[in-house]
């Protein structure tokens, strides 16, 4: 018999893999919130998954370990999208700032000398 913590871990991994990241910011916020809940659930389950394991649990665990790289890749993809949005937001903010004050980055250490006096 497989422990309930292992089956819940598998369900959490399957939910993480099934999540789709969308371009819409509102939907993405909901997906990120769901990812946080799933990861908190996995953290809560981790102490319950301790040896000794039955042979059935060992084979089940091997399947779980095989799925973990895909879960990590999915989470990394999510992080990359968030980083991309943050950098785009920063670029947009810098563009607006330079539009409002176009001479803010001009070096003012030199002086102008009028030679036609």
Report on the structure:
The structure is a single chain. The protein contains three helices and no strands. The model has no long low-confidence stretch (mean pLDDT 87). The chain has helices at 4-18, 25-45, 55-100. It is an all-alpha fold and 117 residues long. The chain has a domain at 58-88. The radius of gyration is 26 Å and the shape is rod-shaped. 70% of the residues lie in helices and 0% in strands. The N and C termini lie far apart (98 Å).
Task: Give the percentage of residues in beta strands.
Answer: under 5%
Order of helices and strands: HHH
Distance between the termini: 98 Å
Percent of residues in helices comes to over 70%
Principal-axis shape equals rod-shaped
Low-confidence stretches: none
**Quaternary structure of the protein:** single chain
- How many helices? The count is 3
Write down the Rg: 26 Å
Give the biggest sheet: none
By secondary-structure content and strand pairing, the structural class works out as mainly alpha
């Amino acid at each position: 018999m497989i422990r309930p913590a292992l089956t819940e871990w598998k369900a959490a991994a399957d939910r993480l893999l099934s999540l789709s990241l969308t371009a819409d910011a509102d939907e993405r916020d909901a997906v990120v919130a769901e990812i946080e809940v799933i990861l908190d659930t996995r953290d809560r389950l981790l102490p319950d998954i301790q040896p000794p394991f039955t042979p059935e649990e060992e084979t089940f665990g091997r399947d779980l370990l095989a799925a973990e790289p895909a879960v990590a890749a999915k989470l990394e993809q999510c992080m990359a999208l968030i980083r991309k949005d943050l950098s785009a937001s920063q670029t947009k903010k810098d563009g607006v700032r330079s539009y409002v004050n176009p001479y803010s980055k001009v070096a003012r250490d030199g002086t102008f000398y009028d030679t036609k006096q």
